[in-house]
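Good morning,

Attaching, inline, the backbone tokens for the sequence recovery test we're adding to the shared suite. The designed sequence is right after.
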């Protein structure tokens, strides 16, 4: 079940107000593949509360001097670590409950 934080319901204008980032900068982060808004049938970008938090994190890292490719690379490493942890946990649960695939 997804949380309200996952629902993509916020428009770029509201995201801009919430974050203090310009709409142009938000679109730039999308171009650099750091954020992935959904699109409505009319093409309007829709963001979630998690996206808002993510944009604030990206902006802070950019202010600290990181480049977009560094942020993306760091994210990819974190995702791979999480995948490994998830696989290990599934393996431990499968062993504990004697589940075979």
């Amino acid at each position: 079940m997804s949380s309200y934080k996952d629902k993509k319901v916020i428009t770029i204008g509201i995201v801009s107000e919430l974050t203090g980032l310009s709409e142009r900068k938000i679109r730039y982060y999308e171009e650099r593949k750091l954020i992935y808004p959904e699109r409505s049938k009319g093409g309007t970008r829709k963001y979630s509360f998690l996206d808002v938090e993510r944009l604030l994190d990206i902006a802070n890292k950019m202010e600290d001097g990181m480049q977009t490719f560094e942020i993306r690379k760091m994210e990819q490493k974190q995702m791979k670590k999480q995948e490994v942890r998830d696989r290990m946990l599934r393996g431990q649960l499968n062993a504990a409950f004697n589940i075979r695939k």
